[in-house]
Amino acid sequence: MHFAFTDQQLEFRDAVRQVLAKECTTDDVRAAYDAPAPRTSRWTTLAELGVTGLTVPEAHGGFGLGMVDLVPLLEEAGRVAMPEPLADTTGVAAPLLGDLDADGRHADRVGPWLAGIAAGTVTAAVADVHTPGRPVAGAAGADLLLLVDHTTDGPVLHAVAPDAGDVAPVSSLDPTRRLGQPAWAPREGTVLASGDEAVALLGRTSDRAAVATGAELLGLADAMVSLASNYAKDRQQFGKPIGSFQAVKHLLAGAQVLLEFARPVVYGAAWGLDSGSPDASRGASVAKAYASDAAVEAARVSLQVHGAIGYTWECDLHLFLKRTWALSEAWGSAGEHRMRLLDSLVATR
Amino acid sequence: MDERTDQPMDLQWTDAQEAFRAEARDWLASHTPAPRSLPSLDTAEGFEAHRAWEGELAADRWSVVSWPEEFGGRGVGILEWLVFEEEYWRVQAPLRVSQNGVFLLAPTMFEFGTAAQKARFLPPMASAREIWCQGWSEPDAGSDLAGIRSRARRSDSEGGWVLSGQKTWASRGAFAEWCFGLFRTDPDAERHRGLTYFLIDMATPGVTVRPIPQIDGETGFAELFFEDVFVPDDLVLGDVGKGWNVAMATAGSERGLSLRSPARYSRAADRLVELYADRVASDPARAQRSADAVAKAWMDAEAYRLNTLWTATRVLDGGSVGPEASANKIHWSETDLAIHRAALDLLGPEAEFHGDGVDAPWLDGFLFALAGPIYAGTNEIQRNVVAERMLGLPRG
Hints:
- The structure holds 2 protein chains of 2 kinds.
- By secondary structure, chain A is α+β, with helices and mostly antiparallel strands.
- Chain A has a domain at 198-348: Up-down Bundle (Butyryl-CoA Dehydrogenase, subunit A, domain 3), CATH 1.20.140.
- Chain A is built from 11 helices and 8 strands.
């Protein structure tokens, strides 16, 4: 029992934080609103640092590491509302492709994609199994789509390298989400897995996505509580900083407590996935539900503490709010994960 | 690089920890009274029954496993203590009548006590021969604890202090043998200075106890009156005038790692799921209305378990628990309420059944949980601490 990150993991996190502080300012996020694209110079920088390939097997140019290693970096991505698809590509797609690569049968196909993810030349979007047939986050502009055909014989997993026109963009309140409706017909050549294999792969994928998204939400929540706390220290009313009033303090303290408790839940879930714990899936549900609730509450509170200025386009807060609202619903809402957990608890009692 | 901080994340118990668990489980299986079979510890009869149970625990060194062996413990670490607690709550063993002593005073005494104090007080605390209550709050000093007015006057001739004043809401105060209390030794000093932490024998002349019936009708706490109560110098814990600092160490234990182990809530949350499953069969509409609250309460308990392991690891790696203890107290107290509130909703019209011949664990648990956001510093005070010390907001 040793529930902590290693010094090395924390040092890498700090290095990524420094890079993102320079390369992913709120001006940069605003620029991505105007021209959303997955492969940016920032993505190249992350690839050079080894971030995009963190979970890619070493044979394909990655570090071959797991979710525990990735989670602190996803928190950093969330903290700056990074527009690029680190969670989807490195947290979800690469481990899924890695599972297929380990099995050997698809090595020819998945190998180049994995190498591309590590090199920063491939970004991926993965269909959310919670919302079959709906627009896929990150699909507009992605190099690789991992899609699911829900057939009467169960789900079939497909990999599609989209051509122009294959994805119809769908607009979102947060344009960096790059939602897209894939216009594709399932073909023999795109099948990666079907039957029980697909069910198992998609189950693991869904759990990883819940944890990866949860980690981003932790970073977003932390950023919003910080923004609002700093504002509350500066903004004066009745001749003193509004942060000195208990009504304001208690709003922020409540959000901070939720965040404090969401962190170990997400970290523990990441460990559960990496270690193959029998409770991994349950842990992923707790992680997504907890992180979603913490971030949604941080969003509510930080907007309230900012007051009217927080409701403007000029104030940076909305960049974080919008991402939070989108991610809180992605890969299963808090309520969906609570029901999933309860069903599992009742079934195994 | 430090060996421990270079260790990869691992949430599995070691073989040694599992062996310790098995030993605890075996002992508890053959010794623990049936769940809820002892009378309430807030009655005279129940107090003695719980004392006897803790005597049994102590006889086989299970009452204070993390203490050094010389004081009655097994010298194990905080993680092993958490393992023991999991087993203790798994079999729904009795509430600890000695909790103010073993979970609050003892950690403070290990930090600030003299060798003589530790030798004198820890062994009978471990065996529950001496049970402690807490004398902090006063009628006019609750959340504003530094507003304490009870006084201790210096008596050089007698070599000690003469205490006078009134304390209130002293849990276990109706029956306890000893009291740890804060008194003002320097009335001219700034509020937080000039306080001193005393260990007081409740049998000393001048101590009067007035039990206070609680919301459930039982005398879980008491008012304590001190009229010229003499306390010798060797019963001052820590330095004279430094009582606030000593008390904050106790408060840190109260809110942080030691008072409420996660297993208590994990087990209650598991029982809540059982109750929910029963209701799915007997009253599906009611169950459905409560499903989200049940799942949420279970998650709150799980989050508390994980956060405790996270904090315990940090402490073992040389870190400390600061204002996070306040966040912790908010979380465990609200989790306890959420679990019991959800249970009462599942029970519906049966929730109010209570009294003679009725076993009402959920309602009793709910009444107990209601006190959580109030004692150990109200949750409003804890939110101030979180805002000021974790987020850096200015004092009001």
